[in-house]
Design a protein that fits this description.
Radius of gyration: 18 Å
Structural class: mainly beta
Mean pLDDT: 80
CATH architecture: Sandwich
CATH superfamily: Thiol:disulfide interchange protein DsbD, N-terminal domain
CATH topology: Immunoglobulin-like
Helix content: under 10%
CATH class: Mainly Beta
Low-confidence stretches: 1-39
Largest sheet: 5 strands, antiparallel
Shape: elongated
Number of helices: 1
Strand order of the largest sheet: 2-3-4-10-7
Length: 194
């Protein structure tokens, strides 16, 4: 685990800009019997879980798919424009050729004043960053390929008095069905103010 003092932030930024992915290398270990959609490394301040708004997706339909971040007290991650320091949280989506992903939705950020009078923007507590998944599939012989598997590569920088980069590789499978989709158990976590 790589711990960084905020004063050494420029070193981390230099590594990131140089393309050295070793600082972000994932050592994902699943905790207990949690599904692969949930990742947390032992002792890390951030847990990340891949969630969907609906329990299935219709051909030609859409749903929201997102990463639910749960941060330990006092820690924060960064918004798309982090401010005076920090790194933006990133999510890269992958799925079958017959799905597309819309832009990432960012809830309004909180304002933080980090040590050294560094002003940043981000999130503490819990937050969901999500995109709209569009299913562009037609039935093949009256059947739909099952299931639809979505993969997310997620990276963040978590800070309190120190900063630690984190990452996760998350997968989630959704049934494809002609039936109207029911809301998932995570539906209430999505922001419906768009």
């Amino acid at each position: 685990m790589l711990w960084i003092r905020l004063g050494s932030f420029m070193m981390l930024l230099g590594i990131a800009l140089a393309g050295d992915s070793s600082a972000w290398a994932s050592e994902e270990k699943l905790v207990g019997d949690r599904p692969k959609s949930f990742a947390a490394r032992k002792g890390e301040p951030v847990k990340a879980e891949l969630i969907a708004e609906h329990a299935s997706v219709q051909p030609g339909g859409s749903t929201h798919i997102g990463v639910h971040f749960d941060l330990e007290d006092g820690w924060h991650i960064y918004w798309k424009e982090p401010g005076d320091a920090g790194l933006p949280t990133t999510i890269v989506w992958q799925g079958p050729s017959w799905v597309s992903f819309g832009p990432l939705h960012w809830p309004p950020p909180q304002q933080f004043q980090d040590p050294g009078d560094i002003r940043t923007h981000g999130y503490s507590g819990t937050v969901v960053l999500y995109s709209t998944l569009q299913c562009q599939l037609a039935a093949i012989g009256g059947q739909y390929p099952v299931p639809l598997t979505v993969h997310a590569t997620v990276k963040w920088l978590a800070c309190k008095e120190l900063c630690v980069p984190g990452s996760a590789e998350l997968d989630l499978s959704l049934p494809v069905s002609a039936d109207p989709p029911a809301l998932s158990t995570h539906a209430e976590l999505f922001d419906h103010t768009e």
